[in-house]
Amino acid sequence: MEQQIVHATVGRVRFRVPRLRWDANYAELVVQLLESLAIVERVRLNRQAATVVVEYQPHLLAANTIHDALSRCFSQATVATPQPCPPTAAPADAIALEDYEAQVEADARLETDWERLGLPLVALGVSLLSVPFELPFVVVGAAVLASAWPWFQRVGHQVSQGHPPNVDLLDSLWIGLHTANGQFLAPALKTAMVGVRADVRDRHRRQQLHAYPSVLMEHYQHLTVERGQVPLTIESQQLQAGDIFWLQPGELVPADGKVLVGIAEIEPAHFALSRQVMVVRPGDSLNAGSQVITGQLQVQATRTGWQTRLGLITDLLHTEPVYDSALAHQQGEFARHAVLPTLALSAALWFSTGAYGPAIAPLQFDFGSGVQLSLRTVLLSAQVFAVQQGVYLPTAGTLEYLAQLNCLIIDGRSGIPDLLGCQRLIQTLRRIGIATYVVHPEAHTVPMEGATDLTSDRLSDLQCYLQGKQYRVGWLSFGEACSCPLDQWLPIRWAPSTFTPNAKVVVLLDPEWAALSRGIALARDALERTYQNVALITLPNLAVTFGGMFLGLHPVVNVVTNNVTAFMAEFLHGDAPQFRTELLPSRPAPSLPTTQHARPSIPQLAFAP
Q1: Quick check: pTM over 0.90?
Q2: Degrees to nearest 5, angle at CA 312 with 83 and 414
Q3: pLDDT (tens digit, 9 = 90+) per residue, 137-177?
Q4: Does the domain made of 4-78 have the CATH classification 3.30.70.100?
């Protein structure tokens, strides 16, 4: 092995690896594999010195076992490559209105600190020193305009592509007019504060994307499995649902699965809600990325690769599928239609008052950041939290639809598992005002209390009724095929063995009825937080903008208010890791019959005689 331990203390070990100095890809993979170990707390890479420092939890495993596990990462990195993310199913028009300040581009290149902060900080420093040192107007103005180059560049791109004007045009005019008038501090402060926010956001994103889990690496280790009572030696990416394998102390769990034999202590994966060591026994579930501390386990894989919880979370963090919601489209359409009226208002104030300050104030109306920052933070955090709770919400649109659900149809024609759990869910949904219908294959079935029972021949009548009421309907189906009859309804699948990541289908990852109620609760909570963030940004912005128009409020106050509220919404209130998972009553539930004999006994449906 080319790596060697040059220094080791309790909880910390330093490796020297000459290859790190000249192979950047190898260095990146080494860090990703080391960070994927559940016991590892921190990894620091110094390519110039060709060293890697790993900090880990020393009390969980013996030192030699830990060092062996760390050393394996270096050899695995010589052949491992990250698997590409599954293709996204989001439509091409799912992106909301883009503006530089909100930075909504999910696939934007991560910029360096100098690109984000260099020119803005220089411009801010020059503007602060311009008065005491009597710096030339041209020098200060050029520095301020150079710091605002991203806005001007985006406006030029919009014009060259023939797109209608957007918020960037308002920001560019505001910066340019203030600079031309000799008011350098406000535009310089704006570019600097926006740059700081973007830099903090990028650092957070780098940290999320850097911890690429080893279970999503190709060719990173070999496993001995039993498949159909036949022993096989395979590479980890070839693991399939149903394969049986053994795990030893220090090894990572390569897939989601069930414990068949053995008792062991497990250190949960980094994405888990709790990092406390837990004991697992036969029948318990294991998640990919966890690490065996003591004991031995025989495990049967249930989901592998991108379909594991760790894979789904990684995909969500990489693709950020949060711009397909109705809220995003409404915000985008509002902003597109508000740009020209805002310009007209500014021109009207100029011609009617002749005052420079009130005329330029409307250009600071914030039409974009509130919704977009909430989509980027609140809804993405909610999607990750939902996977941790056993519910996969592939896009923000599915989360929004689930939060606004009026009706749930349970397709019981192939049987309903756990009737008691189903009955509890129906009662819970009834308390919060969601009507439930159960489709049975025959007329003579055991009725579900609190739900409306109907047979397959009456399904078309139910569709007509619900479409007439414009209800938001969820269709819960069992088995491997999704049988949702209408495209506008939300398909919900019950613990399928395989599914397509990014497809707009809610997936209950475990056969548990309570998971659906938890998913509805956290979706409602996330949507409520999004609206709160919009108010947190919009209302102060309107106040300081009107203050500039009618009270002569200094533009620096506007800049500080806008950026402070945006920072609070994005980093303090937006990125909360916990959401409400208990449903709260929202409105009186409709009165539903508990039995079904003749068609007139279902008052919700307008059946033809």
Answers
A1: no
A2: 120
A3: 999 999 999 999 888 988 888 888 887 787 888 889 999 99
A4: yes
